[in-house]
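Board notes (copied after class):
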Amino acid sequence: MNQPPGIRLSGRHKLNGQLLFSAELDLPAARWTCLLGRSGVGKSTILRLILGLETGGAFEGSITATDGAPLDRRIGYMAQSDLLLPWLSVLENICIGARLRGVSPDLHRARALLDRVGLSDRAAAKPAALSGGMRQRAALARTLMEDRPVVFLDEPFSALDAGTRADMQELAAEMLVGRTVLLVTHDPAEATRLADQIVVLSSDGAQHWPVPASPPLRSLHDPETLACQSRLLDHLRGVPA
């Protein structure tokens, strides 16, 4: 993996002629940034803008990496849906990026990643034979197989039950050490547990939210973590401080 850059987005985005957001967002290198906000404020739009994907609107501004190099081919992406191809085995899904590029996949690395995510015994299985948590673990392994210095996660654990979601948070935190990570989430508890930096997006801009002094991955039961997520939830709900 190459040295991860930080990323800066500065500008405004309009959808159907209406301002969706105007914000400045800095993603520190090799740190987790969690992006929250009400539905429709543009969280996933920011992610898509940096990825260079279509947003259905117009962006005026700049997106730059701190090392000055283009971001193209340096970002891995994990969506809310696992997006596994049902006709391929788990191992074949993990290797799909290499095959689409017309190169031979590193099968040794792919099997090692499957072992890391606890799916070494399911390499030949089709996605339909996996539980939701297993499918998300396979999707994480596929993302890691690309070995990008920057990783974007768009609510990847929101459809999972609480226990599996906590397990996946811990697995992702362990396996994405040293990468620049942007996690879009609606879950204050998830953000408080994982983030080096929390940003709350609204139509007025991007607000930095104070995180606990302890480093991530934070304990689910730590009083400071619980207090932070409670204050953040109240803020997102519009409850006066």
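Comment from the instructor: The two ends are 43 Å apart (CA to CA). The longest helix spans residues 223-237.
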